[in-house]
Design goal:
The structure is a homodimer. By secondary structure, chain A is mainly alpha-helical. Chain A has helices spanning 6-25, 32-39, 43-49, 53-78, 82-97, 101-111, 126-140, 147-169, 177-198, 203-216. Chain A binds a DNA duplex through residues 5-7, 10, 31-33, 41-45, 47-49, 51-53.
Chain lengths: 221, 221
Amino acid sequence: MAKTTKGEQTRTRILESALELFRERGYEGTTMRAVAESAGVSLGNAYYYFASKEHLLQAYYGNIHEQHAAVAGPILEQEKELEKRLKGVLRAKLAVIEPYHRFSGLLFRTAADPKSPLNPFGEESAEARSKGIDLYRAVLDGVKLPPDIAAELPELLWTYSMGIVLFWLHDDSPGRARTHALVDGSTELVVKIIRILSNPLLRPLRKSALEMLAAIRTPPS
Amino acid sequence: MAKTTKGEQTRTRILESALELFRERGYEGTTMRAVAESAGVSLGNAYYYFASKEHLLQAYYGNIHEQHAAVAGPILEQEKELEKRLKGVLRAKLAVIEPYHRFSGLLFRTAADPKSPLNPFGEESAEARSKGIDLYRAVLDGVKLPPDIAAELPELLWTYSMGIVLFWLHDDSPGRARTHALVDGSTELVVKIIRILSNPLLRPLRKSALEMLAAIRTPPS
DNA sequence: GTCTATAACCGGATAGAC
DNA sequence: GTCTATCCGGTTATAGAC
């Protein structure tokens, strides 16, 4: 019963008002005052629940991940081949975010700022990030790989998926055709490269790559 | 003599005050009021010369490329080996942008927004982008490569360099050690990969990669 | 201790007089 | 080309209600 305290309800009302207004008028076109009014609360009250306007966006993108995970689940249960699993998950992502293409620029805009709470590499998104990485761990589930790569690959694939999203943001081709070409082409390549790198002859190359990854990793704080 | 009209001088004064304050206090920490005061003009007058605070940043962006090209030139004249050429140019970039680390996030923030004129993939930066790509063309100058890759490589390297900068933005390790590890490790890898891909046996892989690149390329408008 | 409201602050941006 | 006055919206301080 702790789930629908009055506070929870108010919080939800504010968030939903905000998301609706964002969709209607875009992010910049939506004022915190309008959000508060539309939710039937005072401005100060809105700030009691959401520390900033950006945090409202963060909730918005949190939703996206949940939707993505929900759509990706069935795909992963059905497909066994790595390339299809990866491609399916990426296509699902594109489908989920498509309605928000218009103002997703805002995501990257803030995400690229190291100081923003939305920054996917920052502390505040640690949870969202690890959920995202988990999804790519699931993609690799049941795939045979040399153990040294296997440990690193989920995070690498997640990073790769972020690159795809960045490309998508800038893609205004009809039906997002260019991004789809990128997904189709790059998943094929990624899988081929993984296969090639799995070759024992290339173990030295793999090793130096993995050493680099260790060196650039953020020390756990 | 058209060069130093009163207007030009005022404009320069405002810009220099701004860049100095940005370096000292960061972008967000610098108010337009402070910029105006430090330049000895009124707030409104500052806006007469620069349409927004962001436009002040744009000026910085242009400076950086010029500095980078100037520093990179001598390096390329001296080094003959691809890995050293690439590493040298990337290190030069890091050296040039280091003083601005504190507020470069902001730059990227706007630059990553597809609607921003600063966005490096957009139309308005076409010239800046092609200059950047030219620099990596120069890096490859004199390097023997299969012609199919040779055509694509400058743009790929440029994109790769943007990735390095993105990483640097988020790097708060002492002396930017992690980014330097990334540069050292990744240039080595990049060169190895280019070598491997140059192997005639891998021509099919190369071919599908190049086909993908063609498919995702923005149609010339 | 959890929640809500009002008033004010601050800084980016604009209008319009000189 | 320069100024002053003002707007606007994100954010904060703070007082009090439940």
